[in-house]
Amino acid sequence: MTSGWVPSWKPPSPKGRGSTSVLRLPRLRYLRPSSPREAAQLAAEHGARAMLVAGGTDLIPNLKRRQFDPEVLVQVPSLPGIRRDDGHFVLGATVTLAEASADQSLRAALPGFAEAAGLVSSPPLRNAGTVGGNLCVDTRCNYYNQTFEWRKAIGFCLKKDGDICLVAPGSSRCWAVSSSDTAPMAMALGATVELTGIEGSRTIPVAALYQDDGIEYLAKQPHEVLTAIHLPAVEGVRTAYVKLRRRGSIDFPIAGAAVALKLDGDLVVSCRVALSAVASHPLEAPAAGDFLAGKRLDPETVVAAADLAAKPARPLDNTDLTHFWRKRMVRVVVERALLAAAAR
Known about the structure:
Layout: E1 29-31, H1 36-46, E2 50-53, H2 59-64, E3 72-75, E4 82-85, E5 88-92, H3 97-102, H4 104-109, H5 111-118, H6 123-126, H7 131-135, H8 148-154, H9 182-188, E6 192-197, E7 200-205, E8 225-232, E9 237-244, E10 255-264, E11 267-276, E12 283-284, H10 286-292, H11 299-310, H12 323-342
Parallel strand pairs: 1-3, 2-3
Antiparallel strand pairs: 4-5, 5-8, 6-7, 6-8, 9-10, 10-11, 11-12
Helix pairs in contact: 10-11, 11-12
């Protein structure tokens, strides 16, 4: 080898579908309707070839990894912001997570929802991501949220391109996990959402927006546009959301607890607890609320309620850290959420 030798190396050119060298968006038509009704009509017209997009902070990376294969993106048009209306906060679905987190009226009345919005991902993504998008965010799994080449190498899963659940091979269903932070808090508050379709609008409870299926996790029609969230702001209700994740930013929840608590002095009048990241849908734990009603919120009662809340949680080996540890941590996040709500 002489001192003048130069290696004949060239950077690899992107090749194949979902190459790990460069992740690029597929070719798409991008449509910008002027109203939610028009957006629903366009989505219905293009059927399975179309997807709705708001902030795109989750959808765009998924498109680059070829987790979806649409030909058309239909932009959800800008919707009214945050307003107070007859004991409710009404949030247009395109309100950004940063806006919801920073709104002083919302933080004062419903700090738990503002906390949940403020814990999603990172500041740059909260500036783009929307509350409606977070309610509808795709379910996640270690075997699904990977590049096309990675998934091809191990064999595709039931959620995309395959015919087996790699988390539970003996199961006939997908166990991808719900990863929304705002959904359990909205559920604990008894919130409702407005949906606009080709035949008009309807309002349903947030809880009715979901179904227990990692693939078909939303109960709404694919073309329906989520346009607004109604959050009841009942006098005396105290709220809190606690999120567990490996890092203090970026990461999706691996366990989360939302609490809406009403006290009369030191007695619990009512309580709703909902969990994130322990099932394919945001999971309410009614047994915990029933147990707390009429009791004093002392340390022993909090521990007992957290045990009840953790019972329906079924974390599997489909996200960060071990599932048996996450199961134990559900009790911890519920305890912390109950104590944080009571302290307000």
